[in-house]
Amino acid sequence: MVNPENLNAALLDAHDRAEGGRLAELYHRAASISEQAGKMDQACFYFTHAYVFALQEGLPVATDLHARLKALGREE
Q: What's CA 23's distance to the chain center, in Å?
């Protein structure tokens, strides 16, 4: 697992490599960190990105991310 200090570099690397599954995972991690810090707008930004990449990759976590966004009033 990537630690918070290296998260941005890991995200950039995953974008460079077009690793959609890894991007979903990393954005989900960033969202959780932001949420724990009480930065909800930032968390929702990251949850949305995680959701989009999870959808693109057909990952089962997309369902959980969608539910999370709905619970936060950011979807439907």
A: 7
Residue 50: phi and psi, rounded to 5, are -60, -45
Considering only CA atoms, which of 67, 37, 36, 71 is closest in space to residue 50? 67
pLDDT bucket at 71, cuts 50 / 70 / 90: very high
**pTM of the entire predicted model:** 0.93
In three-state form (DSSP H/G/I as H, E/B as E, the rest C), the secondary structure along 44-67 is: HHHHHHHHHHHHHHCCCHHHHHHH
Q: What's the rounded Cα separation, in Å, for the pair 58 and 7?
A: 23
In this prediction, residue 50 has a pLDDT band, given cuts at 50, 70 and 90, of: very high
Phi, psi of 37 (to 5 degrees): -85, 0
Give the CA diameter of the chain: 33
DSSP letters, 1-21, are ---GGGHHHHHHHHHHTT-HH
